[in-house]
Amino acid sequence: SSCRSAQPTSGEALDGLWYITEISGSTVVPPAKQALPVIGFDAKTGKIFGNSGCNRIMGSYDVNSKDGIIKQEARTRMSCADMKTEENILNALKRIKTYRPLNNNQIALCGEKKQRPLIILQRKASDINTPSSLDGDWRIVAVTSAIIPAEKKSKLLVSFNTTKKSIHANAGCNEINAILSTDENDAYAISFSKIAATMKACPDMTLERQVITALHETQSYNVSGKGDVVLYNKDGKLTMVLTKK
């Protein structure tokens, strides 16, 4: 694929979610249990969002900018076993000057030389944007970066039902129920509302209060290279880590 073409005058063709399938001519091969990196463009707001292989990325874009069309504003700071793909993606995004639609629902993101694309994107199918992979039972292994003691992990559970848009949890003492909300335009958005717990009193309620607070604050999620679900607040800070039961 080549980048030898005129720069589009609008960002409409970029709108939506895309897999990052190639970087500087090399095919992206994600680690086991880790999805391909994704990037999303919102033509209405000029915002970008996505996951660069380990961490979430956020920012804005302007196809008419001469300094580079993508402006990364923030990213989460999770450490993963394989950071090379993420480093390559972030470095390439800084150098994007234009783009070109290709065949087969692909987009080439190009640099100044307009020869080999820096990044190739493949349109992400709309029917896999829903977080159905969350369904089932999960153990809570960390809350607000604090690791849960091994003897308590077996008692701290969260069950997701994306069809019924609900969760059921046990924070070690009381049963917790809440409404689950996602956003079809943002594959990583998730939040919980109408959080209600039973009223049983236990000797130590500290951990349970932390779990309930984490549910209130959660605004997004990601799946780590290990297959764990990581929940974040609006500032991209970790609220909870879940491991499949």
Automatic annotation (TrEMBL):
Protein name per Swiss-Prot or TrEMBL? DUF306 domain-containing protein
Q: Which Gene3D superfamilies match?
A: 2.40.128.270
Task: Give all residue intervals belonging to the DUF306 domain.
Answer: 15-115, 135-241
Question: Mind telling me which InterPro entries this protein's record contains?
Answer: DUF306_Meta_HslJ (IPR005184), HslJ-like_sf (IPR038670), Hsp_HslJ-like (IPR053147)
Listed PANTHER family: HEAT SHOCK PROTEIN HSLJ (PTHR35535)
